[in-house]
Amino acid sequence: MTYVCLLRGINVGGNNLVSMKDLKAHLEGLGYKNVFTYINSGNLIFTSDELIKDTEEQIFLLIQKAFGVSSKVLVILKEKFLDIAAHIPGHFENNQGFKADVLFYYPDLDVALVDKLSFRDGIDHYLKLDDALIHGTKRIHQTKSALIKIVGTPLYYGVTIRNVNTVRKLRDILISNY
User: Fold this and answer.
1) Cα(73)–Cα(58) distance, integer angstroms
2) pLDDT in tens, 92-109
3) 2-80 adopts what CATH topology?
4) pTM above 0.85, yes or no
């Protein structure tokens, strides 16, 4: 089976440093196949016969042991990732005029926290899915967006966030190479 693995909070601002090249080698040493890393912020694709829960724990422990970093790990089946990516509205871009992200839910997230967000008409454009929230706003409205308020909250720690450009790139890699 093919998986996407998203690591939280690594290689951000010079903190929690994890070499993607070294991580790839470690994962291959554990028997994961076709390991591919995309940009330095913890995006991986690989194939494995392992169960997702076992894989998440194994990668978490590997990163902790090899790099001294405790990074939450989210492993998503290729099909589920592609489904989430397919729901991103075509006009959502991450560019100078628009900010668009996908918040991937960790399995232990209380989804009621997402429902409590105070989205504002004309500011927040969003789509709630079972496993993710797709959100976009004009850059000029970013400080008024409901998402600006989640930093440091239980919701913030229950998700890992990728901009839509990264999600689309991972989708394209999955489609063309896996």
Assistant:
1) 9
2) 999 999 999 999 999 999
3) Alpha-Beta Plaits (3.30.70)
4) yes
